[in-house]
Structure formats: structure tokens, C-alpha cells
Amino acid sequence: MNRRQRRGVVMLVLTAIGAIVVFFSVLTYVGDVNAQVGNKVDVLELTKNVDAYKPIDSSAYQVVQVPEKWTTNTTLRSASDLTGLVAASALPKGAILQKGMVVPPPEVQPGYREIAIIVDAETGVAGKIKPGDHVDIIATVAKDDSGPARAEIWVSNALVLEVGTVTQSGGSDNAGNFQSTSGVPVTFALTSQDALRLAYVESFSVKLRLALRGAGDDTQVPPDRQVYEGS
Questions:
Q1: Are residues 143 and 73 in the same domain?
Q2: pLDDT of 3-19, one tens digit each?
Q3: Which residues of 44-79 are buried (b: 16+ CB within 10 A; e: fewer)?
Q4: 88: which of 31, 114, 128, 172 lies 20 to 30 Å off by Cα?
Q5: Structural domains of the chain, count
């Protein structure tokens, strides 16, 4: 074996040794990373935005794996954790679901009644009212023998259970002319007395409107501020 051949053999040996060193270095690095990250567990990640009080079905999330040390005891880990629950607030795509993000849907409590009415789609709802909201139900009444034209809060702090889809309806106005309007069925949870008041005012008022309350606002409107009378 001449000098050139010996040099080639030495280079091959050195290259092989270097490859082995790199291989074991990578293995050591991967082992260190795995040791630092720890075991991975399944969690639920949203794949799209979810509106408040909407169910989170299988099309809205995916199961992904993250290091267990990045989770808490409130992290949701399986589809069964979502059974019978809805989003507590508007949830963004990419969020990892936690227990506080989902709640039972709004429902009628003992002593309350479920009642639905049709509310004008433009003046009554405007796309902003959703299940779980609290509203004041305001009725406008035309001038008659009992008094001047007025607007009055007939039901205060009503809980919205459900908001339906816009439907077209037709009827006659006071002059007997046919008119078409867009209405939205809205379901409330009310006391028996408030349910009666709402049924009455829906039948005899000119228009019903829903005034959305801010989150956590449960203040009572003083009686002298519940009515506004025209001249």
C-alpha cells in the first residue's frame, strides 16, 4: 500500500469516526430535550373561532399533543369533557380549551317560565343579542284614551335563552295596508308575572325593542325612569 492509499484509508477512518461522534451527539441532544420536555399528553385545540354560548362540535377542534408540564388540571383532554357544554365567551382559533372556557347552556331555573316572542330584526336585535345576555324589554305605546304616546320598560333584566333565525312575516298596519317585516324569535326565562306582562305588551304595543345590558349589570331601573312620555 503506497502513501496515497494509506492517506485515503486514514481519511475514511476519520470520517467514519466523525460521523459516529455526530450521531451520538444528536442522540444525546434529543435525550436531553426529551428529558426537559417530559411526557406529552392530548389536549383540545380550536381549529376555528367559536361564538359565545355555541356548542363546540368535532369540526371546531382537533386533538394535539403538548408536553404535560405545559398543561394544568383545568386543561381539557378529551371530547367527553365537552359533552353538554357551550363556549362561555367568544373563543379564538388556536386556543387550548380549559374548564373555565366552557359552561352549561343557559336554562330555565325553578320559579321561571320559558316564553318566546318575535322581535323586529332591525330595531329589536340587530345581530347583537345572543343566548346568555340580559336585556331590558322596551315597548312603545301609541297615544290613546289612557294617556300620551310613551316608551316603557315592561320587563327588566330578562335572560335570553335562545335567538332564532330571521324570518319574514306579513300583516296589516293600522290603516289596513299590507306590510312585510323581518322578525327574529327570541326566547326568555322570566318569572310568571313578567311572562304575563310580556305576553300582554306584545299583543298591544306598537313596537318591542331589546336593550342589551353590559356584562354583569343587574341594576334595577328606578320606577320613575322606566317610562318616557311624549307630549
A1: no
A2: 665 565 556 555 656 55
A3: bebeeebeebbebeeebbeeeeeeeeebeeebbeee
A4: 114
A5: 2
